[in-house]
Structure formats: C-alpha cells, structure tokens
Amino acid sequence: MEARVLVINTFLKARTAISTLSVLVFLFGQNALANDRQTIRLYKANKDGITQALRFTAGKARKPGCHNLRLKTRLFSAVQFGYETCHVYAKKSCNAESIMSFHTEKEPEMHTTDLSEGFSWYPVGEHKRGEKAKSWYCE
Asked: How far apart are CA 110 and CA 101, in angstroms?
C-alpha cells in the first residue's frame, strides 16, 4: 500500500513539474513573439516625394525605450506595430521639450504626440519632406 502511495505521489509531482514548465515555456514564448512583432518604422522622402525607410538596426526598432538616430533627418512618416505608444523627438535622448506632433492622413487637423499602432503618422509642420527628428521612445 505504501509503495502504491509513493508511486502516485511521485507521478503527481512529476506531472505538476511538467505543467509548470509548460506554462513557463508558453509565457516566455509569448513574450518572444511580442518582441518579434513590435517594431517602429521611420520614413524619409526625397525631393521627388519617393519615400525610403530610415536605416537603423531592427534590434533598436524592437526594443522599448529611448533611441537616438545617428543623424538628424527629415522625418516624412512613422508607423509602429506592437507597442502601446511611441513618441518622436526633434532632439537627442528623447528631450521632453522637443516632442513632435503628428496627424494621420484621414484626420490632418487632429494632432497628437502619441503614435498608436497601425496608422501612418505624419509630422505636423510646414516642410513638404517632413520635420527634423533625432530620437524616438516606444513603450
């Protein structure tokens, strides 16, 4: 009888450990998928109006937090996926005083500093090729 109880207890402990391990693998896997899906893309436009993605590493685009662009560039548009919100700044190190305002193509009169997911955002300004940007912050 005691041997049978010991076998059952061992089986239950092993089953609990496997279940716990499965949950942890699932949760870490979901976090990894979220990181692969979250990104920000920043675009510039040349004098002919042809847009091109700004070159920076995909690793920076997938990591939350503040990131500086290597060069000050005229930003024509921005798109982000997977983040709750992103902000773009005219100065390095995400200087709060230099936060930029954006609008969507459908609502050009509605300005915001929060870039939500799934829209093409255009900086508010007078220059047809966009406004100068130096850093961004996503969370």
From this structure: 10
- Distance (Å, whole) CA 85 – CA 73: 21
Quote the DSSP letter at residue 100: P
Q: How far is CA 29 from CA 23, 32, 34, 59, in A?
A: 10, 5, 9, 18
- pLDDT, residue 56, reads 78
Residue predicted with more confidence, 16 or 21: 16
Q: Indicate whether 139 pLDDT > 50.
A: yes
The pTM assigned to this predicted structure is 0.72
Parallel, antiparallel, or unpaired: how do β-strands 102-104 and 65-75 relate? Answer: unpaired
CB atoms within 10 A of CB 29: 10
